[in-house]
């Protein structure tokens, strides 16, 4: 894994937790010495805080591109590969929209890979260094680390390998799990083996975080780990566990109001639905670049790339037309004609189907939301439907949809029609939040951007789901003789 190790050397491990800055000298390649941890028992927590910070920072994937800003960049890029999210012009994240990102020589293939493997290396080292200390604080740190490693491999496997269903023995990923094998060039474990490790990590996390009370939503607690687990089990087809964990994770969380949804709820970590996110501040944003941020790319009302440079993000015409006029989620998108829209006292004229969903009243310092409780309703409903528990599935779907559309009636659908209704509502609710393309890959849904009246732009083509796979970046292929490339 020489390439991964090289790229980690180029990355700085942040040391901010709870929005406070603190100095911590890391060894080359992000290693932490046992002596350091013994000298200051708070250092393990600071290193963990650095991992969280890095996952939202410009350069997380080892490049200087403004498209490289951690989890939110990767979620945004994935959605741009779906049927639902459109980019107006070929700049920055456009590499995802036109599928150039899947090529081994593309910078996106590199920074997606490195964003997660760089963190995995630090996670492994810290897990090794705290394994002999079973204190409550270290159990909580270990629980978060296991969840972060599961989350990292879960994203990687969905980008760089075939879908789990029907492809369990296909090449997956190199499973780097200890500091002993971080310097080695490892072959790819199978898709099944990678998912076995992912589920092992997330289950261990759930146990370790049982009594942990986090100090902010930037940290993973047991509720967050269960939410991540529910998505993992939906992917693998363990629908009993998917529905169980989704239900447990969403309990006690209020849904967003119409005002939350249509104003600035998506840039505020105090949104009642937020399960996991990151509170951005001027100091945290200064670590990266304000323009290299999610709101610069997706807030069409601002002075960033989306707004001022008019690299607009639009909703697919078919999806817009599928939203009932009585559903307030339709208010965050423009219709079929140009229209004026005022935000922060500034009125602008916008093109058809532009999004007003992600509005940040600051200068790109809006909070990042990784996980909302809304997503869990759809995970639970689909998992219940696939178990044949259709009455329960309809009720869960009704609980959230009736909040968005007061005229919505309890569904009478069954079988595939019920599942399709759940997926449609999920696409509407979570537009731009990083779910659509992964669901297309999981469900075998083709990319179809050529249709009568299409409003797709420079990425106007159709693709079969077998093309939804990234190649391993060239730097990794060139430096690891054990790894085999995906076919183009």
UniProtKB/TrEMBL annotation:
The keyword NAD does not apply. It comes from the Bacteria. Gene3D superfamilies: 1.25.40.390. Coiled coil: none annotated. Residues 356-487 form the RagB/SusD domain. Pfam families: SusD-like_3, SusD_RagB. Its main location: membrane. One of its GO terms (cellular component) is cell outer membrane. Residues 95-234 form the SusD-like N-terminal domain. It is found in: Cell outer membrane. Keywords: Cell outer membrane, Membrane, Signal. Belongs to the SusD family. This is Carbohydrate-binding protein SusD. It comes from Elizabethkingia ursingii. The lineage of its organism: Bacteria, Pseudomonadati, Bacteroidota, Flavobacteriia, Flavobacteriales.
